[in-house]
Amino acid sequence: MKGTRAFRSFARAVKGGHAGGFTLLEVIIALVLVAILGTFLVMFMSGVVTRSVEPVLQTQCGCYLHGIMENVTVDYNTLMLTDETPIATLSDRINDGDYADEDHSYTVVTNDRISFVEQAGEMVEQSDSDGDVLKVTLEYQGQRLTSLFAE
């Protein structure tokens, strides 16, 4: 009789709703909400991860550009010692793309001789084919770098 009494109290608890746990509907709703939130999280994180590489690429491109300009400067210093017209030779080499390698070609934005003149109390640059200063602006992957080379 003891076992029968225990079974009856268990059956009453199940029928009366006194048993603990979740209903199937509650479990399904919880899973749907978790799936929706998970989808939003994955979409947000994938965008963050792909955009996180941009600063690294910009820094890398800046390093390549500085390396190219460093090669131009080293060549300029050598030309100052060995060439009769170092600015003209340097300008030609820059236009010919001599300082680029096969993976990192640059675009010449400015490669002009300039001089500085005073206008309204300020020194202003102007294009001058006989100028003693060569202004060079190179671009690589959207980044620009300008250097001045003087005779």
Residues in β-strands, percent: 15-25%
Structural class label: alpha+beta
Distance linking N and C termini = 114 Å
Largest sheet: 4 strands, antiparallel
**Regions with pLDDT < 50 over 5+ consecutive residues?**
none
Question: What string gives the helices and strands in order?
Answer: HHHHEEEE
Rg, Å, rounded: 37 Å
Name the overall outline. elongated
Sheet with most strands: strand arrangement: 2-1-3-4
* Whole-number mean pLDDT: 84
Number of strands: 4
Percent of residues in helices comes to 40-55%
**Total count of helical runs of at least 4 residues:** 4
Structure description:
With 151 residues, the chain is of the alpha+beta class. It has a domain at 54-150. The protein is 54% helix and 23% strand. The chain is built from four helices and four strands; from the N terminus they run ααααββββ. A four-stranded antiparallel beta sheet has the order 2-1-3-4. α3 (54-82) packs antiparallel against α4 (86-96). The relative contact order is 0.11.
Write the layout of secondary structure elements.
Blueprint: H1 2-15, H2 24-51, H3 54-82, H4 86-96, E1 107-119, E2 122-127, E3 133-140, E4 143-150
Antiparallel strand pairs: 1-2, 1-3, 3-4
Helix pairs in contact: 3-4
Describe the structure in brief.
It contains four helices and four strands; from the N terminus they run H-H-H-H-E-E-E-E. With 151 residues, it is α+β, with helices and mostly antiparallel strands.
